[in-house]
Write a structure and sequence with these properties.
Two copies of one chain form a homodimer. Chain A has 193 residues and is of the alpha+beta class. Chain A has a domain of 118 residues: Jelly Rolls. A four-stranded antiparallel β-sheet of chain A has the order 1-8-3-6. In chain A, a hairpin with a 2-residue loop joins strand 4 and strand 5. At the A-B interface, helix 4 of A face helix 4 of B. The structure holds a DNA duplex (30 and 30 nucleotides).
Chain lengths: 193, 193
DNA sequence: TCAACGCATTGACTTTAGTTAAGAAATAAA
DNA sequence: TTTATTTCTTAACTAAAGTCAATGCGTTGA
């Protein structure tokens, strides 16, 4: 179990120096939880008071529109999943679902705010990480807008080849905003080249 | 000129209580600047050390791809424009251009950091505003992914009718990620309904 | 073992956006 | 005002995604 905590510390150490006290505080303000394939971590319409750091596995966020699922993002190992409405009273617009067996470290605002009180440097840290996530998001939005479905697929294969293996095709399709039939055709088209 | 500063304070007062001292500090750490239509505030490849609050006018951010412009966002009155690479040494990936005559309040990190020193509550404030911007961004991404170009156009007409009036059609088209010809057809299609 | 279900693929057809080119309308410049 | 230039619209054609329907292929479960 200690290995799991280490991954979080490793993640944070990319941004700041982790003291022994801070390490202890983080260990105390999070806990490990396991989910199985298909488990829903967050429902549309409900509030969320948890955020997750993925130790192992894959989490998918999606909306429902006209009865079918529109995948927003896939999160995998060593990524933080922070619901948009985290630490607010706003009901969630999206779902969080485990694509496979998933082990996460769970954080919540009550425990966090204590830690934040004791370690003001974490405030700066969360701002920096937030900025970085925001920049990545904006970039991937720009990438998305500038690409055709075919280019988006090629891009995904290149940047996250693991997803192609571990995620059902129709979820990949909804992530690329095409119908499963179209994704099949895109793949066939690329084979004949 | 005092009226302009007031708009910033009004914006900030949505998030925190503005004391007299804070008001004074903000007034001292920003200045007003005017631009005319077509002026470039930030070039691709250059670093940015300014952020803007729009008093009046409209600013467009865009990338260049294959020679033509891809509009990322339009910013108008009472909105903050914070370049992605603000306060970093990272060269900008996008341009900022004035769509029309625009009056902004300019902030920069040197002046700001002094203010931040004196008023630690501004740190929290910037985190909250950052989170809000992030949430909006993620939501508009989701909206975008879930919609057809036609739906995106209708959505824009509904949510930001002013843009349709003040921004050239081909820039609107690039914002919706369609060619100008397609936007023309979409409009015609909608007329005949 | 075999039936049922979900998932991926394929085909025929429809719809819509991209492309190219031409012309109309609006704006800016001489 | 008149000329240029940019912007918008229209048309004909091509390419690609959506839709509907059928088939095949694994996995699950009775």
């Amino acid at each position: 179990m200690q290995i799991m905590k280490d991954k979080i510390l490793q993640y944070l150490s990319k941004y700041t120096v982790i003291t022994k006290e801070l390490e202890k505080a983080i260990a105390e303000s999070t806990f490990i939880q396991c989910f199985t394939k298909g488990d829903i971590l967050l429902k549309e319409g409900s509030t969320s008071n948890e955020c997750y750091f993925i130790i192992k596995g894959c989490i998918r966020s999606y909306y429902l529109k006209d009865g079918d699922e529109k995948t927003i993002e896939f999160y995998t190992e060593d990524e933080a999943v922070i619901p948009l409405n985290y630490d607010t009273i706003i009901p969630s617009g999206h779902y969080l679902e485990c694509v496979e067996e998933t082990i996460v470290s769970v954080g919540n605002p009550e425990l966090e705010s204590e830690t934040f009180q004791k370690f003001p440097e974490l405030g700066m840290l969360s701002r920096i990480i937030g900025q970085k996530i925001m920049a990545q998001q904006q970039e991937s939005f720009a990438d998305y807008k500038m690409s055709t479905p075919e280019e988006r697929y090629l891009n995904l294969v290149k940047r996250r080849p693991d997803l192609i293996q571990r995620v059902p095709q129709h979820q990949i399709a909804s992530y690329l905003s095409v119908k499963p039939e179209s994704l099949s055709r895109i793949k066939r088209r690329l084979m004949n080249k």
